[in-house]
Records
---
Amino acid sequence: MKPNLQFDFIVDKENSQLTLRREFLANRPLVWDCYTKSELLNQWFAPKPLNTKTKSMEFKEGGHWHYAMVDPNGTEYWGYTEYVTIKPIDFYTSLDTFSNEKGEINMELPRAKWKVSFADHGEKTLVELLVQYNSLNDLEAVIQMGMEQGMTMTLENLDLLLVRLQQQQ
Amino acid sequence: MRRDIFQAIADPTRRAIITLIALQAMTPNAIAEHFDSTRQAVSKHLRILTECELVQQEQKGREIYYQLKIEKMKEIDKWLEQFRTIWESRFNQLDNLIVSLKKKK
């Protein structure tokens, strides 16, 4: 079976806002868990070739997720997400920031407000991510850092992944 | 001060100027007519846009025309395309995870 999953990537440059919509082939509770449990986030959140490692997580309003994305050389890039509003299994809002290993937020780097919503889509689940930056410059900075961290995935990698997915079905 | 594409589109008046001259090259006077701001303010924005290499001037007779360098606008899309790739990578990994979680059940 070839997965045919909706993926929208909408950029609102005027308002420095990104909207991502993606379908997943699973029911809502499972997808919710993938976004809100550290042992599951660890398995997908950092884009290849990076790995995710969680230092601490408290998924509750006012709680946080303190994590690092680790590149193949072992360099760690720390992030700190503060959870603002949580309404299981409909949506949560959070503040996405860069930090250090101690969990001190780096105020010099861009911060973004996230709203992550989950909806039933037949047998699939539709996740909508609203990412709001202060300015387009912030967005550019984030992309630039992403590039430096090697957060690229070649088409070749994607093809391999698709082949593996198909074999598993 | 930084002079790049992102600086160019950071200001609403500059974005409006870009939209205007995307259709056709215009003189500074013709551009200024579309705005309430002073001619000087519009000139300043045009200067910044020129420094950001987003517009270029062309002399036609006694008039100077400003025109948009379309290929420069594509730089933004290039950046955004990379961001999109990052998310594609993430989501593909989540697909993988979901497949393995469902198998365990």
Note: Strands of chain A lie at 7-12, 17-24, 51-57, 64-70, 76-87, 91-98, 112-121, 124-133.
---
Amino acid sequence: MTALQLTDVRKTYQSGDDEIVALESTTLTVPSDEILALVGPSGSGKTTLLSIAGGLLGPTEGRVMVGDEDITGHSPRELTSFRRRRVGFVFQAVNLVPFLNARENLLVVAEFAKLDKKGAKERAEQLLGELGLGDRMDNLPGQLSGGERQRVAIGRALMNQPELVLIDEPTSALDTKLGEQVMQLIVREVKARGTAAVIVTHDLRMTQFADRTISITDGRIEH
Amino acid sequence: MNLGLKELRRRPGRFGAAAAALVLISVLTLFLGGLLDGLYLGSTGALRAQPGDLMTFSGNSKLSVIRSRITGEQRAEIAKIDGVTAVGGVGFALVSAAVPNQSEPASVTVIGYELAPAGVPDRPMVGEAYADQSLETKGVRIGQVLAVGPKQLPIKVVGFVSDTNFLQQGALWTAPTTWREVLASARPDQTLPSGTFQAVTVQTARATDPAGQASIAASIDRSVAGVRTVTRDDAVLALPGIKEQNSTFTAVIGVTLLVAGIVVALFFALLTLERTGMYGVFKAIGASSGQVFAGVITQALVVAVVSFLVSVLLVVLAAAGIGDALPLTLVPRRLATTALALTVTAALGAAISLRRVVRIDPAAAIG
């Protein structure tokens, strides 16, 4: 089964009279258990591609399928529902809620999806245990190290059991050793769940953890 | 888990500035409302307590009890009107009274009545009076003999009643004969013939039917020459300064609540601006604009309610300290309306942020 299918996806913006092409016509397939690394310099369009795949942006042209759901023509409300159910995000800036502890940062996902509270709590605690944070569940983000915060963010991305996890520069704020540890964790957790992942990174050293690597430059994918 | 409540519990200091401002605004609102209610209650008790649905004054008196005169003949005619069940004369004399063991005289209103007002027993003996409870603070006690008016007429206090004052003066409810003596001693030019009162209270068979009352009032005015009949409420509003006082204070209270709304709107607008990133992340991971906004509204309402409760405590303490130096009265209805107005204003103020919340782009969470 295919986790992500982009068909002739193009994204442009209007700037006055000019048309800016953020993403050239792109066709990309990510199978359901693949980890795909997407590398490219700043401004290459990798974040745009990630945003379109995750239903944060709509394409100007083309079709976007995540699993069996065509999200191309989804309304904002439908995209919100889609993200709630089928996609997990790990943001570059981590972006944990500062006044919620580690457990609650995961439970927030269940709260928005209106999932069963007891089941959500058990899942959150299980995830945090697997991520090596079993004894840090009650700590606020300010009380966690950079690596621990990143692991909480990974747990949050997996909380809704997504088919596709989109990860933006997971190691940019970490040293090499910690970065490798985080990548190993991502691979382990994603593979254990049969989830597909697209990891955006500018660090070529991290591509060794992916099943496949593609480059993107000036909005164009180089397979 | 309500995110808005969680943040309030974990980071109450963030909302300190808005809460402090709302406490001050609420204190001001309650203080103004308390003064308005104190002034109103202290001026109008004697008329509000009248047993009749209607009151009749002389036609040329502009509803002033001081200027009005209703003769015995006019009273008898009023009693014959269809729908009128009882008519009772009432008269007022504003004088001072010397209180035993007190260096300062008390300002009192001696009120002569025929029909017992609400909370007041039937007419006492001549030379006796039921005193309003407020006179206790002036040293008045049951059994004391007060020296009333310029001629120091003796009036014995035989009981207390409450909420019956007239124009901020403690009421002494007496038999008509006692009242006439006091009035004649204080205002010889206003000595009234026997049977004449300043106004009459009119009980009707249509106590709960405003249209019926209006009809009877019109009948009285048509049938009895030289009178004007109004509802008890209108008679209260006609007291000197009441309407102006109500409208002035109400306007000031309204403006104060508007300021409260603006304070909340500004605070939450700034907070939302500060949180654009976090709200973008919430939306990216599946929160609807409604869910995000619910947190904002929850915080506004909780801050408003907590601020109100703190302000009530402060005003109660202030009232205890002020004593009777100011006519400050906190009534349950005022507390309830202020609480409601403050929470509604806070909610509306926070609602200003709704448009901004809706426009937050979840794509901003990435890159």
Note: Chain A has a mean pLDDT of 92.
---
Amino acid sequence: MIPRERCAYSAIVDRPPLKLPNRARIVVWTIVNLEFWSISRPMARQVLPAPTGEVFVPDVPNWSWHEYGMRVGVWRFFDLFARLGIRPTLSINARAARAYRSVARAARRAGWEFMGHAWEQMPIHKVDDQAEMIAKSLDTLARFAGTRPIGWLGPGLTETHDTPDLLAAAGIKYIGDWVYDDEPTEIKTTHGPLITLPYSVELNDIPMMLVQHHESAYFTQRCIDSFERLYREGAERAKVMAIAIHPYISGQPHRIKYLEAVYEHINRHEGVLHWNGVEILDWYLSARAAA
Amino acid sequence: MLPSERIDFSAIGQRSKLALPSGARLAVWVIVNIEEWDPTQRMPRTVLTPPAGGAPMPDIPNWAWHEYGNRVGFWRMLDVLDHFRIRAVLAINGSAISRYEPIASAALERGWEFIGHGFTQQSMQKVADEREDIRKTAAAIREFTGKHPRGWLGPGLTETWETPDLLVEEGFEYVCDWVLDDEPVLLATRTRPIVNLPYTQECNDVAMMLIQHHKASEYYDRAIDQFEQLYADAAQSARIMALVVHPYIMGAPHRLKYLHNVLSRLRDRRDVLFWTGAEILDWYLAQRGAG
């Protein structure tokens, strides 16, 4: 199905406003992404292309640059979110849960929500049997999380035209791949409705730091600018603001303080909820009935 | 026809003086671009590349990222333009008029000018039948607004050797693809000439944010620098300044305020006019007649 067959165009101003409990204005949804980069393939991202720009396998420098996030960077995230009392959503390649067991255990202990994020980090188009990969990923994560995930984010947000159908068939209730609104929406699948949550490619350290090459400090500025605008709009209708981070990027010593500064700013405001994907989903399903 | 056959070289200081009414020095026109991206084709622009690169199809995340502009971003941009009582120019793909009917209606209600922008967002060099594309686009605008469009902007400013000829033959009076001057100019065609209005690739959010990867604040800084220089230049002869925005870019929550702040600065000046393309065209033709 192409996107138009799943969901018609809808202008946000033509919908009844959604309301949050206790006159809150905005939900901040933090997503920590953990990936498995197979050394036998080209790396998902590169900080340093090889001289002349050719792609070589194995690509040890870029593999180890990503690995730093798992060995060191992610522990800065655990410290930060423990201090803040925030339980993010963990978007995790299932193979990463197996390869980095202590990280997965720490996330479970901290009460983070596990969200499906494919088996390993490659475009979903290249997976031979998506249904099998989705089932294997969710089964594996269920063992680490204690419950089967109901949320899903494609690797690099990638989908084929039948991915939402396969996800719904596998019991997924929400996806983050459709970054086309400030509110959750419902899309059609061959296996019933699926909810899209407003994930972000704007407040996301991959496009910002690895594609657009912004300075670290700009992460704080862009998040604050977004927050200020959405907080203002949140007086009229509930807004969801996602912050998507990766330990090999935002967990770097030179970047972590800019992430901390975002939460310092946000938490000076009344009416801010820090929710995970499941909490946003549950709220949306009841709020739209009330709207 | 080659560009040199359409227009002779001319140095700006060696032409007769253009004067705006009431002693104004500068006319500013704001162009809002509305596009429809076909999810079965490659996306015209991307914010997020897939893991390990390449261009696997379909590209749902980047399709959704653009769609955000039409579902959400346009509406907050509209608040800003309404606040400053600015009638913008809507450069719209012909197909987008029915697809995003609420956007077209909002523009029509406010008396914005509609200009052709290709039937779909693809290079004019890839369009199978260029005349038919131009005709379909003009017809879509005429049916919706009751008026034949007077202006045209190629998708991505693209043209073939024949585009200006076809535009005149299909009833267009001005084009914006030739960013070669600060004043309107005449381009020869195989029939009668067509006017080119000064559009911009410089104060244009696609070039600035998606290609050059500037911070959002650079839109403000650059627009103000551009304005101050053109304002100084206009002591000699009237100048035109274009500001180009796309809802999926400047309509992102973190970017909107920089557009607001530009317009706030420019709106303060009594000797600056905010005009549509048609108003600039009519003024220019009258000036030429008088000169």
Note: The radius of gyration of chain B is 19 Å.
